[in-house]
Design brief:
Strand order of the largest sheet: 2-3-8-4-5
Radius of gyration: 18 Å
Strand content: 25-35%
Oligomer: single chain
Distance between the termini: 28 Å
Number of helices: 7
Helix content: 10-25%
Structural class: alpha+beta
Length: 307
């Protein structure tokens, strides 16, 4: 059955790129509502912004949503990953600013907050998007592919010149709480040179090494406390991918492979998927299919203690 959160929960912090303080409140929603953002700081006009692939204003540094009136909310990927990873299908997300707070740079605080409130079953069947044809896009040396599968599976590969990151590869089936156990506490990361360039251009104003991001330089991890996982960067890229795939509008059943891919490529892949005749279909989930969706069977004990 479809789900929502049992009671509202709020999160406050600073936007990674804007540096602006913001509070997000996740509220329960009815069946078939889906995931929507509402800009509570806007008094006039359309405040609602759909969490959907065709509302993405594509940006290489984060996932930004925009409604038909031009109202935006950015850096939604970690929150969307948490909702998908906890199996939440319906929610209204109120936010009093233009950017979701970065918190610790991962999805773990969102996941723990959602699970503390609890998941409520609704009286309507859950529908999923089943991938029927393989779709691939390529940009330079980066590739993103979605292929048929009986569950959501994510493969990711990264390759950085910085020795502290280097070449990393990981594959994970995204059911039975695997997102919470394996990925949700992995933080956003960047190179020191990228930080300098972004801040020179008025971005990453809320970034802080050790508090909400991992910063690398050559063979060094500059963030105090080091890494939570030896391969934390590729795990975070998989977290981002889940958040971006959650914008499909329903749980996606397919095999995603990203090689040096980012937010823009994943959105381009979704656009290509929905533009390809016969590549995807909406199906009503039976019990067996539901048991293979992200978040099914998740329990609090599986959530990392860092949250």
């Amino acid at each position: 059955m479809q789900t929502t959160i049992k009671t509202p929960i709020s999160f406050s912090g600073t936007g990674l790129h804007s540096g602006l303080a913001a509070t997000v409140v996740i509220r329960p929603a009815s069946a078939h509502h889906g995931i929507w953002f509402s800009r509570s700081d806007v008094e006039v006009g359309d405040r609602l912004i759909p969490a959907r692939w065709d509302a993405v204003n594509r940006s290489p540094l984060c996932t930004k949503l925009e409604n038909s009136s031009g109202l935006q909310v950015s850096t939604v990927e970690h929150l969307m990953a948490a909702l998908a990873g906890c199996g939440i299908h319906n929610a209204l997300i109120e936010i009093d600013g233009p950017e979701v707070p970065i918190l610790d740079g991962s999805s773990a605080p969102f996941v723990r907050g959602i699970m503390q409130r609890g998941v409520r079953m609704l009286t309507a069947p859950v529908f999923a998007l089943e991938v029927l044809k393989t779709v691939t896009i390529t940009e330079g040396d980066a590739t993103a592919t979605i292929a048929p599968s009986d569950t959501l599976k994510i493969d990711f590969e990264i390759d950085f010149v910085d020795a502290a990151i280097g070449h990393q590869q990981k594959s994970l089936v995204m059911n039975n709480g695997s997102f919470a156990r394996e990925l949700c506490d992995s933080r956003t990361f960047c190179r020191q040179a990228d930080v300098d360039a972004m801040q020179a251009n008025g971005l990453a104003l809320g970034g802080s090494a050790g508090e909400n991001a991992i910063v690398f330089e050559g063979d060094k991890v500059l963030s105090p406390g080091g890494l939570r996982h030896a391969d934390e960067p590729v795990r975070h890229k998989m977290l981002d991918a889940l958040g971006d795939l959650a914008l499909a509008g329903a749980p996606l059943i397919g095999h995603y492979t990203g090689i040096r891919a980012g937010h823009t490529m994943t959105n381009t892949l979704l656009r290509a998927l929905f533009a390809t005749p016969g590549a995807v279909r909406m199906v009503e989930c039976d019990a067996a299919m539901t048991s293979r969706l992200p978040g099914y069977g998740l329990v609090m004990a599986e959530i990392p203690a860092v949250a």
